Amino acid sequence: MLLRIFSLYLQQTIKPMPRNKRQRKVISPPRFKGFKPYGCSKNKQSPVELLYEEYEAIKLADYKLMNHQEASILMGISRATFARIYEKARRKIAHALVETREITTNTGNSYSDKTWFLCQLCHSRFTIPQKIKEHKCPLCQSNTIENIL
Ligand SMILES: [Zn+2]
After folding, report:
1. What is the CA(71)–ligand 1 centre distance, in A?
2. Mind giving me the DSSP string for 31-92?
3. 128 C-alpha vs ligand 1 centroid, how far in Å?
4. How far is the CA of 139 from the centre of ligand 1 (A)?
5. Domain ranges of the chain
6. What's the confidence (pLDDT) of residue 13?
7. Whole-model pTM?
8. From ligand 1's centre to the CA of 135, what distance in Å?
9. Over the stretch 29-70, which tens digit does the pLDDT of each residue have?
10. How far is ligand 1, taken at its centre, from the CA of residue 33, in Å?
11. What spacing in Å lies between the alpha carbon of 146 and ligand 1's midpoint?
C-alpha cells in the first residue's frame, strides 16, 4: 500500500523531462536580425522565424557549395539531420518569398566555439578573445553590447 501511494506520488510530481535537443554548431551567427520585403503591400502575417542552424545550413550548402556530408561534419550532426535542417530552411525561405513575409532569426538549438556579441550602436557582430577583459565594441568602442550566441 505504501509503495502504491509512493508510486502515485512520483507519477504526480515527476514530470517527463523535455527532450534534450542536440545542439548544432554554427561557425558564426547571421549578420542580420531579419529581412523585410519591399515594393509590395504590407503583409500582416507573422514573420518566418529562421533558426541560426537553418541559416548555417543554407550558408554551407548554397553559398559555400559544400555537400551535405561535409556540412554535417562542420555542424557536428548526422548527414540525415543536416538534410532535414536544410530542407526546413529552404521551405521557410520559400514561404517568406512567396507570401512576402518578413524573416526573423533566432538562436534555435545552436552553439558556437566562440562567444558572439552584437553592438547595439553600430550593429556589428564580433567575438572577444578571452585575454581581453574589457567588453566593448572593437569598431565604435561602445559598451552597449549584447551576447547573441
Ligand atoms: Zn559598435
Report:
1. 31
2. SSSEE---SSPPP-SPPEEEEHHHHHHHIIIIIS---HHHHHHHHTS-HHHHHHHHHHHHHH
3. 13
4. 5
5. 22-110, 114-149
6. 56
7. 0.81
8. 11
9. 999 999 999 999 888 899 999 999 999 999 999 999 999 999
10. 15
11. 11
